Amino acid sequence: MKKIIVLGAGLVGKAMAIDLSKKFDVTSVDINEQSLAEIKSRGIKTQKADFADLQTLASVIKPFDLVVGAVPGFMGLQTVRTVIEAEKNMVDISFFPEDPFQLDELAKKKNVTIITDCGVAPGMGNIILGYHNKRMRINTYECLVGGLPLVREWPYEYKAVFSPIDVIEEYIRPARYVQNSSVVIKEALSDAELIHFDEVGTLESWNSDGLRTLIKTMPNIPNMIEKTLRYPGCAEYLRVLRETGFFSYDAVDVKGVNVRPIDLTAKLLFPKWKLKPGEEEFTVMRIRISGDEGSAAKTYEYNLLDRTEKTTGTLSMARTTGFTCTAVVNLVIDGKFNRKGICPPEYLGEDETHFNFIGAYLKERGVQYSIRH
Question: Are 334 and 307 in contact, with CB atoms under 8 Å apart?
């Protein structure tokens, strides 16, 4: 039986470990003993380790056939580099801010397959675009995506399933999109607009930096944008917090102690953003791809509305992100996808067999994308 190590035992890491354990010998590793205890209770092997110690990380991953990365974004790049140096294949969802292609040469030299950004968006959105980009001349790609609590609770009407600092990063990282074949850079949270979604109602969309590798790998598409979805009114108070400095990484002196505002903000926000036991959430995504297919104009629209799985309590964001990743893990570990180097998810979508496998894998687990064209 193939051996897989999952780095990170948070809400998404836990869902992936449980899913993969049905077929593989899985070990979940984290520094948080409480998170590991929950996974151990499911009969999955666990190990406590600090990924910040790269020597420890290299030692921990050594016995395994494949590594799954679910660490916070600020640890992502160094974790991936360590995995490459250890000559292990990896599927990663850490969403680190740096350009993953800076590791491409090293990954090819070490003859390994490293799939980055393999979640829902980025992730499944890239896979869908990669599929259609091989089959039509695309003019416009638009992805609107968000994860939200079912019950809107004052003051934030938001709950986080990722590291709070990773969520805040979405609000401060400049948003890049492509317009008329030129890269446009705007502030995150800019260009807010209200959009209606069936079964959900009106949500607010605003610019976020979700295109990532697509800007480099899809230079033929003249218009591409990704926007984050939240309940209406969210962008304004987040902009107030940002402009006041609460999201800053620059330390300030507070009574003789240097404090990074973002650390304090994350500490204060986490209790407000944490889902309570039994609290439900949902993931909504709409992708529109327009262009010419053959001699005819064509538009494809993919819609996802996924909710917390009530019987197991598995969160929607863990399902939609985690099961995309575990589908791809199956392709890599079974030798069906073996391209070497840094491989963003759009590379997987190019092959119809891979595209159909991932779609079927998600559908089998109740994550369904409806398609209009």
Answer: no
Residue 194: closest CA among 138, 234, 154:
234
pLDDT-based confidence at residue 70 (cuts at 50, 70, 90): very high
- Do 83 and 215 have their domain in common? no
pLDDT higher than 90, residue 24: yes
* Number of other residues whose CB lies within 10 A of the CB of residue 368: 14
HSE, side-chain direction, 13 A CA sphere, residue 248: 12
Residue identified by tokens 């010419």 is 292
The set of residues, in sequence order, having a beta carbon less than 8 Å from that of 103 and lying 6+ positions away, is 77, 80, 81, 84, 114, 342
In order, the DSSP letters of 196-228 are: EETTTEEEEEEE-S--TTHHHH-TT-SEEEEEE
Same domain, 357 and 261: no
What are the CA-CA distances from residue 300 to residues 138, 251, 308 (Å)? Answer: 10, 47, 27
Q: Is 301 left (phi over 0), alpha (psi -120 to 50) or beta?
A: beta
Task: Write out the H or E segment, with its range, that includes residue 55.
Answer: helix 54-61
Could you tell me which residues are beta bridge partners of residue 98?
A: none
Number of Cβ within 10 Å of residue 187's Cβ equals: 16
Query: Which residues touch 331 (CB under 8 Å, ≥6 apart)?
Result: 337, 348, 354, 357, 358
Q: What is the pTM of this model?
A: 0.95
Q: Are residues 181 and 273 in the same domain?
A: yes
For 261-287, how does the pLDDT look when each residue is reduced to its tens digit (9 = 90+)? 999 998 998 888 888 888 899 999 999
**Residues counted in the chain:** 373
Q: Are residues 63 and 149 in the same domain?
A: no
Whether 29 contacts 56, CB under 8 Å = no
Residue 332: which domain range?
3-121+316-372
Residue 369 DSSP class: E
